[in-house]
Amino acid sequence: MGIKLTVIGGSGLYTPLLFDAIANYQEEIDFDEICLNGRTASKLEKVARLSQSVIDKSEYDFKVTYTTDRQEALQGAELVLCQIRVGGMKARAYDEEFPLKYDIIGEETVGPGGFANALRTVPVMLELASQMEEYCPEALLINLTNPASIVQQAIEQETTVNVISLCDLPVGVLNKIAKMLDVDRAELRYDYFGLNHLGWYQQLSIRGEDRTAEVIEEVDSLDLGINSEWIKNLEVIPLPYLKYYYHHSIEVEKAKGKDILRAEELIETSDEIAKALEESPETIPELIYQRGAIWYSDVIVPLIAAIVNDKNEEFILNIANNGLLEGIADEVIVEVATIVNGSGIRALEVGEIPLQVKSLLQQEANYRNLATQAAISQAKDDILKALVVNPQVPNYEIAYQIWKEEFSK
User: What pTM does this model have?
Assistant: First the structure.
């Protein structure tokens, strides 16, 4: 008997790439059913039809089902993949736009925009977790919904659901490094630590040979958006999101100078994808591939295979700290290398954190801890505590102004 995977947010236009990734994966995964759950039956039907078409052309024969009934979707599920975006792209556009009024970067996981996303998203995710406790209490929740670490900490704090979060950003950087060194990514060994969207590689080796210095010397070719001289001074390789911390003022000016928000670009792309699906309902539109959506092929499907097929595979995942990173509360969700198999997830030991990144890491971790409590309570005092500690917010006066104008409505 195969497994049932339920996809929450299954009507998303990129969902067929999950089935494409399954069909093209190097080994078989024993699925009995993949159930797509969403709010709009007409959208679900179109996505399910295309997804079933992908499977029908493969060597698989499991069924693709769809339903707007959350209970029906969750019952019997061993794995639940959540990819909802609360408020949709319009809410993301708001998160990107309003912080710029205060000369702060607007982004869906960073700064006040990311915090607005957390306040909006955590109650919805806690409702999902509560439903999982009732209908599939043994299932593993694989979370893609942002802000991932705050969402996960809230679920772990308030429910008994087994949850992990994952992101394709660390893998994307590893892919670039592997290409630079002209090796297969599987050959790279690494020491990685941080938080979701705020992490660093501090050692990279191939077959026992340390190649870190070489990568740092040629770091310009990775196109991380961060000053290469600063990276050489840091002596660690940051994820691209660190540009919002190291070059905050520059990024704010860039954002203010854009004619269109990233969310608005994605809305336009989604409209074009929907049109293409109307014209050819059983073919994945080329526009979907062009976005470079590697999260299904490079992270999610390999992770599911490692769990279902009981393999010892290494993944960078988000899990509770529990002493992994020094100076960070145990309950905070950190992003580290792990070994995954059918028995569970085991974090690999993290080396000593360099002093030059430790203060930023700890401040952001403290903020996310406070943001989690605020997202659960929705209380003014908790919201202000989190805003003042947020690394992007310069002082109490601006934090209070943001609360009054954006969060007290």
Answer: 0.95
